[in-house]
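Q: Got a minute? One more chain.
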Amino acid sequence: MSELARPRLLITLVHGTWPRGLFPKIAQFKQWARRLLRRKRLGPPPFWFEEGSPFLDRLSNELADIPHKFRSIDWSGANSIFVRDNTAQILAEHLSAEHTAHPEATQLIIAHSHGGNVALRALHHLPRHDASRSGGADAANPLVATLATPFIEIHRADFGHRPDSVRGAVLLAIFYLLLLLAAWLFPSAHSHVPGSTPNELSLSASLIVGLPILIVAIYWIGKRTTARQNQVAALSCATRLTVAPQRLLVIRAIDDEASLILALGAILNYVTVKSIMVVGWIMVRLPVIVPPLWLLFFFVGQRSPGNHFPSWYRDVAALWCSAIIVTLFGVLPIWRLVHGKELAKSPMECQVNTQSTPDAIGQWKIVTLVRRTYVRSLRHGIYDHEDCPKAITDWVRSQLYAQPAR
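A: Always. Here it is, folded:
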């Protein structure tokens, strides 16, 4: 291959989560039908990272005077922190091998959505892959352009007793629900001690239900501490980002849908945890709270409360509190799922940092694209913006001219 024919710019495209939509099988069938018909206008348009897409066509036109070559890294697009980290290692291996084969060329990564997290994680893995290759050549140092990427990092956090308080409230709610179930299944277990009501279970029934809950509490709250720390450490390591100063372009949009969903998930996660703690606090103090409310209800209604406080009032309140706690704890993984499926079952001793730009030392370029005309498309699909290819090529040219000759 001659020097003129050798590509000067090697572009690697990295798509984000669910690149072919929530139903990839349907998208694959449409793509197959389009290839079968061999007429693109009769089928759906190619995705942004596929050959013939409007984005790549406009980008090629902008780079017409610079020899370039496209390659796409196809990965599952799963909403998984560890899958993204594994893909980053594959990308790092590709970049290292490509740099070894074409040391004179400049490498550029264009990554959309969570593909940006994959790209920055690849920079973290890249030194290890470069060191494993012989020859002593310069290490790969690609340019990175991210499109609408919500940069995510997991950190260990000290929330005090809040996580254990949530676990205790959940176990208390389960304990009470099991007591009610035992009362319904085994009515003969009701105690007949003078002064008790038919709704109260005997001490033996409480022990039968409570002992398994106590064992679970000891294991879940006490014995799992080390395992939780290891899990948070693994998530933190898998999301640690590396940014090369002055070699990063961040293109973002106003009111990006993906960023709004992640922010909503973080808010709902906080509200749900706080609600579990508040309802648990109320449930523990029901013996003190319910009788005065019961008396107030009768006095306001100008009725005599009688001499005996019916315990079923407290039972109904405890049942509602238990149902609310269990329901909130059941939906809590949904709010955490938006940042990665591992967080749905991760411990509560971690916090998620989501930003439109990563934390780094040095300077990089940040471009916020604004649509000034109405277009029926999501802001997260920022590659459809008419200024996106030009923003990338202008920045690439500035970097190419600023780089010393190889």
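A: Strands lie at 9-14, 68-73, 106-112, 143-147, 151-156, 248-253, 350-355, 365-369.
Q: Perfect, thanks.
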